[in-house]
Amino acid sequence: MAWIELTGVRTHNLRGVDVRIPHGTITAFTGVSGSGKSSLVMDTLHAEAQLRYVEGFDPYVRKFLTPRDRPRVDRVRGLTATLAVDQRNANRNPHSTLGTLTGVDAYLGLVFARLAPLADGGTWTGPLHPAQFDPHTRDGICHTCVGARELVAALPELVVPHPELPVLAGGSDWFAGPLSNEAAYLPSLAAQHGADLTLPWRALPEAFRRAALHGTGGATVPVTLTGTNRKRTGEYTYRADTALTGALAEIEAAYAAAGTDQAKRLYRPFLDRRACPDCAGTGLGPIARTVTRAPTGSSTSGRARARRAAGSSTPARPRGSRTATGRPRRSCGGCAEPGYI
Question: Where does the record place the UvrA DNA-binding domain (predicted)?
Answer without folding.
Answer: 156-264
